[in-house]
Amino acid sequence: MAVKVPIPKLGESEETVTIQNWRVREGDKIKQGDVLFEIETDKTVLEVESQFEGTLLKIVVPAGVEVPVLSIGAIIGEPGEAIPVIEEAVKVRESRTGVLKPSPPAATSLGVPQKSQPWSTSSVPVAKSKYSPRARSLAKNYLIDLDKVFGGSGDGRVTEADVKRYLESSGYLSKKITPAAFNLAKQAKLELLALAGAEDSGRVTLAEVRRAIAERPRPLSRMRKVIAKRLTEAKQKIPHFYVTVSIDMGKVQQQRAILKKRGVTVSVTAFVVQAAALALRELPVLNSECDGNTVKFKNKVNLGIAIDLEDGLVVPVIRDADGKSLDELQTEISRLAEKARAGTLGAEEMSGGSFTVSNLGMFAVENFAAIINPGESGILAVSSISPVPVVTKDGTIVSREIMKVTLSADHRVADGVDGAKFVNSVKAKLENYSF
User: Fold this and answer.
1) Among 136, 237, 411, 412, the one annotated catalytic
2) Can you tell me whether residue 20 is helix, strand or coil?
3) DSSP assignments along 279-315, one per residue
4) Which one of 43, 215, 227, 394 is most buried, by most CB atoms within 10 A?
5) What is the reported pTM?
6) C-alpha 148, offset from chain centre
7) Pick the CATH number of 3-123 from 3.40.50.300, 2.60.370.10, 2.40.50.100, 3.30.230.30
8) 411 included as an active-site residue
């Protein structure tokens, strides 16, 4: 019997999903465990394996379109078997262009598709164009926006004569542009009248065209849209407050040097993660989640690590971080970072976090504050280690390796004292670090 294969929901926040690539074709024999397709989620690309055996009778959702999670993606059955009707077909959207494709005809109550004309241009009446072919050609050659040209005929249709009148009345004929700039503008489909000329001569050069191309609005990527949505919501709904301390990282740097001589490289991030995880065990109020009415204290310290990618951030999670040794934390950080940059993180590796550490220390940052991830109550922003003159208790000025960290905390569940206790706990653990 033919079965309908749904596109799985791989994360709590996922509402839509895009099949990036089908790994099988219609007619292929399918075994349990075979990879059917790759999914582009909000954060990564994942392989989806088949839970069924049989023949791939039909691919319902093609690659490159965005559909709601749990939509039927394919039909698997026996060769020659009747393909079941997908009763609730939905309109799917091209994930790259945003163009809507029409749904297939809906099923009747008997499960038989209603007869209708196929989706083709031949079945749709062709309306007379608003612009004449010669008007389009002239506008294209002169880089004119036809929407700005008024049609002088009674029916409002724009003709070649209308375009010529527009050229004269708009000041187009006095516009000066270099041949190279004109060719590039034409290639980029820019409107000539919208291009600003040089201040001294008013002449449009190649530099002005390149500047106009660079300033064109560009759609946000899928990842950036998700980041924008989630963090805007977090900033609006979570009342943030911030606490900063300066930490003497001298002992940590000494320990790192000792380990390096033994052939072991441990990042500053690993030390900070360990200190933060242990501090959360002491102050569980920051290892919680608030929905505005209730607070949920989490019994596990699952630390998210913010990792920068070319198109945005991902936050894979180290589970039970407070119970892991320093070398175990370093191994986990390296593994997750490698998978993040390869785009192979699983949904389970990016969910269930209870607190986040964001380290910009490698970018010469003196101090910064981060936005709390939804579902958590705090995030620790880690800055660079820099030599700083420090006055000791006896009045001597010495140089110390100082690193600032800033806690962003949810004021609904924690107060300033809680934040101060947390960052000072992290500080004490790092300044007095020993194996």
Assistant:
1) 411
2) strand
3) HHHH-GGGSEEE-SS-EEE-SS--EEE-EEETTEEE-
4) 43
5) 0.65
6) 36
7) 2.40.50.100
8) yes
